[in-house]
Amino acid sequence: MVETILSVAVSLWILIDPIGDVPLFIALLNKMPPERQKKIICREMLIGLSTMVLFLFIGDGVLRFLNIQPSSLSIAGGIILFLISIKMIFPLKRESPEDLDIETEPFIVPLAIPLVAGPSVLAAIMIYARQQEQNWAILASICIAWAISLAILLSAPFLHQALGKKGIKACERLMGLILTLMATQMFLSGLSLFVQQDCSPSATVNGAASTKL
Fold first, then answer.
1. Distance between CA atoms of residues 8 and 128, nearest Å
2. 141-169, pLDDT tens digit by residue?
3. How far is CA 53 from CA 126, 190, 210, in A?
4. What is the value of pTM for the model shown?
5. Dist. CA 43–CA 114, nearest whole Å
6. How far apart are CA 15 and CA 144, in angstroms?
7. Please, which residues have CB within 8 angstroms of residue 12's CB and are 6 or more apart in sequence?
8. Displacement of CA 30 from its chain's centroid (Å)
């Protein structure tokens, strides 16, 4: 169980991508005093955490209502994470700080959503919630990933100065490579589960019955 919690936490932390968000956070908050910056970061991170926890508890119900099978979810999740990881390794042109509104204090958008609790993070949480029977394990993973991301973003000015633009890009691509491996494993697990379900005795019996009918 501990390995599962840590594995999910690493996956969510990579998807949150706090290191890649450092330049945007600095650009959005550079006109404010350092103490105010920390308060805003903590507030936005708490909003992002609340959003992730909400999707943790309602996501499984939504998927069950739509009658989505675990194998389909795992395969789709692997494909989605793979596409995200490819964008991290071979990034497109990101939104520049000049394109963002930095005249007023940001609230919810864009810091909490989508930079912290973005679509990829929320989709991954729904996938893991369906795969794991115990929500408290995923909740622990969310809290671990969130706490590490909070620590990184609070030290954003130091990291930006220490790593520089090239260092941040290198870290982001390394995380993308790790996410590629995790996405491939998720896809293969879903494919294996699908084959097992398709070849199970109950599936064979149902298929034979439908043939006779």
1. 8
2. 999 999 999 999 999 888 878 878 788 78
3. 10, 24, 42
4. 0.72
5. 14
6. 13
7. 121, 124, 125, 141, 142, 145
8. 26
| Cβ contact 168:53 at 8 Å | no
Asked if residue 84 lies in contact with residue 120, where contact means CB atoms within 8 angstroms, the answer is yes
Give the span between the Cα atoms of 34 and 48, in whole angstroms. 21
Q: List the end-to-end C-alpha distance of the chain, in Å, as a whole number.
A: 45
Six-digit token string for 137: 């394990």
CA atoms within 13 A on the CB side of 146: 26
Given phi > 0 = left and psi -120 to 50 = alpha, else beta, which region is 132?
A: beta
Give the sign of the dihedral formed by CA 126, CA 130, CA 133, CA 137. negative
Q: How many domains does the chain have?
A: 1
Measured distance CA(122)–CA(144) in Å, rounded: 16
pLDDT of residue 103: 56
Averaged pLDDT of the chain: 81
Token pair in block for residue 30: 């550079």
Token pair in block for residue 155:
């030290």
The domain of 43 spans 2-212
Question: How far is 14 from 11, CA to CA, in rounded Å?
Answer: 5
The SS3 call for residue 109 is strand
